[in-house]
User: Fold these one by one.
Assistant:
Number 1:
Amino acid sequence: MSIVKEISAFELRDTLWSGALDTLETIVENDKLQELMGLLEELYPEPVDITTINDLLWFDDDFIFEQLSIQQDDD
């Protein structure tokens, strides 16, 4: 069975987990949430499951930050 649900930018916080939440928080702090949604629509023109989005934000955060022009501190 396959269920497709469209979610808004603000629903992401309730849907993501682990490291993806940290990435999302950085994006929100930098006021880039709408830009993120546009990037996700470009990367995934067809529906994908939330695990794909979660993994992108969790494991490819450097790519996301680069695409959104978010500077990261080197701690």
Number 2:
Amino acid sequence: MSATRIEKDSMGELEVPGDALYGAQTQRAINNFPVSGIQMPVEFIHAIALIKQIASQVNQQLGLLDAKKAEAIQQAAIEIIDGQHPEQFPVDVFQTGSGTSTNMNVNEVVATIASKLADQPISPNDHVNMGQSSNDVIPTAIHISAALQTTRQLIPALEHLQNTIDAKAEQLTDVVKTGRTHLMDAMPVRMDQELGAWALQIRHGIERLQATLQRIFPIAQGGTAVGTGINAHAEFAQRFAQQLSQHTQLPFQPSASAFEGLSCQDTVVELSGQLKVIATSLMKIANDLRWMNSGPLAGLGEIALPALQPGSSIMPGKVNPVIPESVCMVAAQVIGNDTTITIAGQSGNFQLNVMLPVIAHNLLQSIALLGNAARLLADKAIRGFTVQEHQLQSALNRNPILVTALNPVIGYLKAAEIAKTAYKHNRPIIDVAEEMTDIPRAQLEQLLEPAHLTKGGIGPD
């Protein structure tokens, strides 16, 4: 095969690599957008290929596309969905804002494969793109890929993280530690209470995703160029959504307004916002783990995370909390991605948003990063950490804030005086309280028992 060949489109002739499955429009995009070297996410390409597969089925059923062409298009699309020909989708993320270059890239590759399968010419525009426009394909592909990745990857990963936290909390129901507010000593808490808060953060994140998905399932397909449905059969949108739902087992449906589906990306901005919330939760949990693990001698030293790798190229024996650090970086990236998506979401000029490719890239990256980070945090940090009970007990015994339990008995000012004295002389609060009040030692032991103080209320049971 020659190094190049000549392909034609509506703008004329163009040299294309001889072994490329794509044609002139893809090559124009390659030439026009040498921006980042970042290609569109594979999940997004697969979603477009799925649109081509379903669309050809619908057009065949409607009598608009003959069976031989339709079946060849479907088989070509399936090859792409199955992971074949990944090198044939080189178009940069930072391309035309409608994503037309990527839509035509897929159209051309499908057409080339399908033409060979059918042994007859199949047009990327007239056949593969029948009843479609880039303007409804790309928004639909964003919704499809986001829904599939969220339901199949992210939510299961978050459920795994929540279950791992719950299981660890169940193991630590009897472990009492010093609570902290403002990073300063506060009243005692049990570790299962602390971890239970983490688990609920994750559960709320899952619920937020599930709620937003109800607005992701409506799709723009069938709206074509501006939302009027021009060049698509009147039944196309409904039939497409039905067959897509059957194929994916997700409740896709036509958008209540194709004009809304093409002109704005509000629901995707909402979904990105939910991803940002989850990133915020993961960063909080990861940073709690880093603080609890700090030391081992000069920090809190409450837990020991699993030792996974040497922590320094110069300090022998140093081990760092690498998984929480990785998770924090993921969270930072997702929060940054959300800012990009928010800005891009504002670019719905009249009947079309014109920052769709960068929305797709950032959204799918965020979903993938959070899913991977959640599993790492569960399996390589939370599941395996051990509690340094001696360190916890030592800190509890010296915690002057325990005196808070005496407020109802001796008043705030007297309690503050005891706390300051205990702190100044580094003495157990119970010894100072015994000296500075008339409360018997036995009663003080009941009032200041850390485990009892984790139950709230006033005084001992």
Number 3:
Amino acid sequence: MLGGARSGKSAFAESLLEREPSVDYLAAAAVPDDDPEWAARVALHRLRRPATWRTVETGDIAAELAEAAPPALLDSVTSWLTRAMDDCDSWSGATDGAALAAAIDRLVAAWTQSGRRVVAVSDEVGGGIVPESASGRLFRDTLGTLNQRLAAAADEVYFVVAGLPQRLK
């Protein structure tokens, strides 16, 4: 599930799983305690989920995908990458990128090997302006490559624009 900010991609992803008796909602974002706007966004997402859905707040999405469990909704790949870049100290450019590449490879391997039905949400950030900072460009480029790898292994891929899903694959 790809799309821009506030495109409706999360709501569409949730609709694909609405008939499932249970779903693991894999929330990849690290939620800071001092950001009330972010907390409000998270609260809205939680309100939309059925009571039978289990929320798993984790940065270790690969481990969750390896579990023999009900279908999963990963929201979002973008948040996961942000967290992975934090964990690998990638923002400063001071590292060689090996740790981040390994984390991405682990996620993609788990995605391709998972026996679960998995719906993933990710932002499409490559259609906008070129980020001014080197770390912004690294993030944009890395997310674009990660989206390509996940899409290549996916059975279906949708792009959501203005709440309208368009099937790409």
